[in-house]
Please model this.
Amino acid sequence: MKQNTWFNGRLGTVLTTAGLIGLSSLHTCIADVARPAHAAHANPTAETSHKSGSGIQIQSTVNRLGGDSVEVLLRIEGVNAADGATISYTLSGAGQITAQEKDLLPAGQVATRRVTVRLAPGEEPYLNVFTRQADRSSVISIALDKSLARKKAAPAGPVTQDSTGRDLIVMPGQLRK
Amino acid sequence: MHNYLLRPFAQIASPRRLLQAALSGLALSLLAACGGGGSSDTQNPVPAASSSPLPAPVTLSGLATFDYVPNQSGQLIYSKTAARPIRRAALEVVGNDGKVHARTTTDDQGRYSVSLPADQTVRLRVLAQMNANGAPISVTDNTRADALYAVESPAFASNTGTAHVHAASGWTGSAYVEARAAAPFAILDTVYRAQRKLLAVDPAARFKPLGLHWSTANKPASGNRAKGEITVTSFFSTLGMGHIYVLGQADVDTDEYDESVIAHEWGHYYQWAFSRDDSPGGPHSGEPLEMTIAFSEGWGDALSAIITERRDYSDSEGPGQANGFSHLLDGAPPTLPGWFREESIAKIVYQLSQQAGFAPIHQAMKTLANTPAFTSIFAFSDAVRRNNADTGDTLDRLLAAHSIVTSAQSGDPFGTNETNDGGLAIAGVPPLALPIYQPLTLDTPARGCSLNAALFFNIDRVFGIPNKLGNQRFMRFDAPEAGWYSLYVQGVTRSDGTQAQPVLTVLERGARKWYFPLPPPDYRLLNLPAGPAVLSLHDKDVIDGKELTGCIDVMITKAPVN
Model:
């Protein structure tokens, strides 16, 4: 996917990642999701995601429940295949999905789904939502909680500097003679 | 144009440095990406700082390889993992003290050969970095300050004579347990093949720098790229440099081995570097699409198949990378084909390549950079015909099969005489799809409308948002003479009493410029050359998701001369 230039124009120069501040051209842009809002403390936040593949669009709202639990409310559009679509979930990071609603999405309707997750200390949790329609599939990840101190995922290798000062991630290779 | 100073790879490793090099116009005369053997300028040992006598040099040679995991029809098939050469990548021989004893570049078979001091304990280090006719290409980790990936062998004696280094996938049977060392090189290899495909028809092609950003943390979440929240594998450009961010989170969505996906994004890089792309970018699922994005994404699919020499587009995802999808590009037209369908564009361009080769397609895409129309299948077909009538005839047969006006019937890049409206016609609303460019005449008011009608839901037509057919209304004005013109734009009051908020885009000096709502009535001064000028209009509320039809009145006049 080429990233959306429309939002870039609308929001002005917003790209600040990768040390590229101030260097974005008109073609430079953020993705189709203009609102970076993720997750959830007391106030619900919303995120819109469109992804190619299944053609299904999902809006999510994450609400903090009591204790370490959150609920994710999904609004699902774009199911237009005659036999509908399917939706399924996995969790990345620490926690456990404790409840989820049925996985069939009827055609021609805006559907809603509710998923609850119990969080646990550890890697930052994301709910992965997989959709499939007419033999095409998509996935989006929804950040669930940023408020707890989280352990980083294991990196691919240490960042080292070589003799020129260049930052390298040196991964172990095999020697074959 | 880029002129580069002769500098070793080591000094341009990071994207920041690549960018600095690109921005400062520094010249880098490095080796071509393809053809010939390993580099010759770096095979000599790097002189040691010490003044003590060096041992006699020895030759060390071997092969650099990586694990390639095939995606045959949507899923990664780990059982068919095979070693592939790491081609045209920078390779260093490093001592225990970190000193680089020799540098070179692997050849097109992944081979290297260097001369270095004997009796040294050394390691082979291959950098995820190459160049394309002088333009640097690298794979870095966006979650760790874009550090450059490398794979390094265990230590061995420099007198060995032959030593091969291999980057493994890290897959141990049911999961990625070990370092995913092969991933950056898999990405690099797809780009290598893309470059090779282009250089075969255009050996002097001037590439632009490209940064490939991959991490095991890259996930389909929106937010902070430095955390891996990249939304989707995608391309964007900054001044003088292209960027492709690649998904990498295992069991969710990884794309390093999805060569279709990498090559598709390289297709967008190609448009930016060698052609032109007026697509707004963004989501493109659900059809019919706005014509510039239909062409851009269909082009990406087609070029992907051309580069990878496969007849499908395949993308894996899910637990174990065992899910995904695949669709064929050599099949029959889709249901309700047309200029607004990515699938039609993909099949047309791919099938043209099978019949006429890639050279005329590349020539047409280069021609497209200067088309007075927005980039679309119409501008492409016109460019093909203008470059070669026979290829134009071949293309026209494909266009006709997809219910698209042929280049012979149209005779221009504007889709004149197109009759396929994609089913988008509403009683009482001015035409939303046809003609492709609504004519705009000097001093004559015109009305263009944009639509978001998710209610038009059925299997093959989703007239919603974003980037759908009907969201934009294209217009064409033929300036009788060069000079300044005033374009007045006024939102029409809708049935609910609110007023449409016009958003205007104009093709100016070969780039699509966006103008956003201003307090009405809005007008823009445009300095136009004599001849055709194109613009598009839409109602901001339509694109923002309101289900309505928003109409905009426009009129163009000659600007008063002071």
